[in-house]
Amino acid sequence: MDVLRGALRTYAWGSHTAIAEFTGRPSPTPHPEAELWLGAHPGDPARLEGDGGERSLLDTITADPEGQLGAATRERFGDALPFLAKVLAAEEPLSLQAHPSAEQAMEGFAREDRLHIPISAPIRNYRDRSHKPELLVALGPFEALAGFRPVARSIELLRALTVADLDPFVNLLAGQADADGLRALFTTWITAPQADLDVLVPLVLDGAVTYLRSGATEFAREAKTALQLGELYPGDAGVLAALLLNRISLAAGEGIYLPAGNLHAYLHGVGFEVMANSDNVLRGGLTPKHVDVPELLRVLDFTPTDESALRPRSAREGIETVYDTPAPEFAVSLLRLDGADLGHEMDAPSRHDGPQVLLCTEGSVQVHGKSSVLTLDRGAAAWVAADDGPIRLVADQPASLFRATVGI
Ligand SMILES: [Zn+2]
């Protein structure tokens, strides 16, 4: 077991304070810090702090896959860590996006290879052959858009904005109030000529202002989000598309699971995110980056979902709360020590005997592996090789620790 030093990624939407404060570094930072990668992704592997200095987690796994990953993980996923864990801090909204299914990723990767599009090219959609299901657990209040809202509710929202120019679109949706209607409306908006969007989007924003000034509260969050997105991305079809998505507010400890084809955008907040080890993103707007509309339409799932369906069920058993997701690549749980647990060595066996990434989010906890021991304070992470588990935990004050491991 070693301290895992995450790879810090700076993106324009990141925060000058959140990750620095979480990991105990001075803030504000000179650059907006967006993600701390706690994994072995070849694009930016985390580093292990050992006695002989730092070394890359990726190199460590490559040199000793059996000891680091264990036989069961190697058999299922080969000699690579199948998941990537991150601390994510969004000061501003991320792009509207969706991720492909496993089948679509295989097919898309092969197709773009045949077209000789370099892996690093900005127009490349598929940078690897993997799907990218993702789970985000909020570390504080977290705001997001995810999944197409049940249609009747979206019609109520669009009508509440009282924008006459929206009427033909609302009627289109009302005439076919299902996934096909959503596909038709989304396709119309995302392929609309810019000149049309430059008229319609400002009218919708005016509608949002009027709605908020009226003192109405039912769709206040949705209207405010439209205004925020419209200010950042004037005339962007994503501002309209966002009106069709569930507007989700998570409290600390609450999670959201995004399966293949789910259209989503993180808006604001800090979270612990775990995903299959992939970079495959199809963007749908609200970004200066490449948007491939036909490919996005191919992967999007327009089936309306209630936001509760996107929240993984979690149940506490002993010290562990497991976030239930169908992803084979990862499993995420929160280990919490409090009350009568304090001062005792508590067993924390994992449902999978593969490797573990730990992240302390509260207090200070001593982690005992089979052959090593480490103390983690808030903001610190650790790598537990497969041959060093199962772990036991000791804390004197209430403490919380996220665990990412391989799915079962
Ligand atoms: Zn995503």
TrEMBL record:
Domain called Phosphomannose isomerase type I catalytic: residue spans: 4-151
Binding site residues for Zn(2+): 97, 99, 134, 264
Coiled-coil ranges from the UniProt annotation: none
A family per Pfam: PMI_typeI_cat
A biological-process GO annotation: GDP-mannose biosynthetic process
EC number(s) per entry: 5.3.1.8
Cross-referenced InterPro entries: Man6P_Isoase-1 (IPR001250), Mannose-6-P_Isomerase (IPR016305), PMI_typeI_cat (IPR046457), RmlC-like_jellyroll (IPR014710), RmlC_Cupin_sf (IPR011051)
PANTHER family, A to Z: MANNOSE-6-PHOSPHATE ISOMERASE (PTHR10309:SF0)
Protein name: mannose-6-phosphate isomerase
